[in-house]
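Weekly modeling sync, notes
Attendees: S.R. (lead), two postdocs, one rotation student

Agenda item 3: backlog of single-chain predictions. S.R. asked that every request posted to the team notebook include the full sequence so nobody has to chase files. The rotation student volunteered to paste the first one in as an example of the format we agreed on. Action items at the bottom.

Example entry:
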Amino acid sequence: MKKMFCSFVFCCLCFWHLVVFADTDAVKSVMEGDSVTLNSSITEIKDRDLITWTFGDPGTKIAEINKEDGKLVEDLDGRFRDRLKLDEKTGSLNITNTRTEDTGVYQVIIKRTSNPTTYNFTVTVYARLPVPVISNSHCSSSSSSNCSLVCSSVLKVCDATLSWYKGISVLSSINASDRNISLSLPLEVEYQDKNTYSCVLNNPISNQTTHLDINTHCHTCADFLTPLISAAAAGFLLLIAAVVIFCIYKKHRKTNQQDQARNEEITYADPTFYKRKAQKSEVKVDEEVVYADVVTKK
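Predicted structure, as returned to the notebook:
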């Protein structure tokens, strides 16, 4: 009787060990790009062991160790593209550079006798989260004491939560239920509020946080109008300068054209010489030279 009781206790301990092992290693969660190792639950492969790994439902064979034939094959399916590595001693499977598409159920089948042993692993690969953005939802009058804000983020995967925190307390939150969606969460605070606020985007294994700076993120309508007025004034001055420069250039060009036209309109006639006969006298008459009038044509 005592021997049976001891055997029963031993079996219970073995079963408890298997249950604890399964609870510890059966679920894996990693960030995209990280590595994950799935333990085969054995310490050393025997001479006739056959270790087979499958992925998905129904399971597709992805890796295998046949100790009896001396064969080790990795990435049988081709979808992992040299990202699988089998431990030749234990048969454990390592997946490197994980992707969200690697999420799913993995199964290891250990065949030592006629009754093989099977273990299942659920692996979840989470995409890296973007940093949430805090912006002013609309400007408020200078007399207003409140600031309206919105925190937003665009997600490529589901299973993420966007939340506003006041200190360590959650004020509001919204969950992503689908891929490729935009989340936004409003918040209204007072300009003189001295509390600490932050917007947090998180999933089960990671988070991204943006802290609120009221002086940076909160703006009144005057804050928005001042740079606009300055820009408009600068643009107006540039326009006036351009008009003045154009007028000066146009006037200078017109003056040059008028001067050129005057030079082209004046024509000078050649001088003409006439000789007159001398009188029969002792006094000699100088030759008279007659010049033709200068004619100006317009």
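Discussion: group reviewed the output briefly. Residues 8-24, 280-292, 294-298 have pLDDT under 50 and may be disordered.
Action items: rotation student to repeat for the remaining queue; S.R. to check formatting next week.
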